[in-house]
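In response to reviewer comment 3 from the previous cycle, which asked for concrete evidence that the modeling workflow produces usable outputs, we include below a single protein chain processed end to end. The sequence was submitted unchanged, and the resulting structure tokens are shown without manual editing.
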Amino acid sequence: MLHSAPSIPWSYAAEYDRLAATTIEPSWSARAMARLRARQLDRELIAGADPAQSAELAARAYWLTSSDNRASLAGAIERLVRSAHEGSNRWGISPQRTAVIRQVDELGSLVSLLRGRSPLYARGLAMLGRLLADGTGPAYVGRPEALATCIREARRALAG
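The workflow returned the following structure tokens.
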């Protein structure tokens, strides 16, 4: 038989929420170290490391899954697509036009996912970040099929 939970006073619930927020948020020192070691921690997360393994990994995962980072990644995807449509760029590395244009629907879907409210896994967000930032990666060089493969793997990792 199911029993209803006793009424929880509002003040207790509000205090619990404040406690949970401070308990879950990484310490400033862990966040600082995670920022300094971001690339290495991203590599570890992409390789499958559990964010609960260390305070630094947890802090990095906390940042990767933040709404600020998600919005930044969505904007970077939009700039990648825009750059592919506009052609060569004298001031920076141009994306591989054919590969990006072939994946425009999938990339648009990723933008919607990033801008949405559904929870996403840090591993997939780290994969997307690397895909967008690595000028020697499949968004910029190599076979067009390699970009499709990376996008599929990142999408799978986003869902867990």
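Residues 7 and 122 are 36 Å apart (CA to CA). We consider this sufficient to address the reviewer's concern, and the full set will be provided in the supplementary archive.
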